[in-house]
Amino acid sequence: MDSLSIETLSQPLFPGCAVLRLQGIIYASTLVQVEKAVKNALEDKKKNLVLDLAGTNYVSSGGWSAILSAAKKVRDLGGDLFLSGMKAEVYDAFELLEYDKVIRLFTTPEKAFREGLPQARPA
To answer: Cα–Cα distance between 58 and 80 in angstroms, integer?
Structure first.
């Protein structure tokens, strides 16, 4: 059975920011984990999030919908959501679906915070 593990990493250099490191497969059976991790980060006052997909092997259409929904929720609360570290097979779907026009992608989480959030300077 394919699964997903999510590790939430606070960013001491970037207060109010967190990285959600997703490893595995994002699809119908694991969507609730993604939604819960985003909800928990927001409840922990982390308004700027990076979903680190370096360890993600596949994202279903439902997975992409959950990511878009998370981005909207984060933005509605005055923050932003970025993606980082996508494998080629995951990136192909991301680009094909034109989600690159809606969510910014960076090579690393740190680069996302430094370049995606001009106001986020290391503390």
So the answer is: 23
d(Cα 12, Cα 66) in Å, to the nearest integer? 27
φ, ψ (nearest 5 deg) of residue 35: -60, -40
4 band by pLDDT with thresholds 50, 70 and 90? very high
> Could you say which DSSP state residue 103 is in?
S
Give the three-state DSSP class for 36: helix
Where do the domains of the chain lie, and which CATH numbers do they carry? 4-116 (3.30.750.24)
Instruction: Reply yes or no on whether the pLDDT at 1 is more than 80.
Output: no
Query: Among the residues of 24-83, which ranges form H helices?
Result: 31-43, 61-76
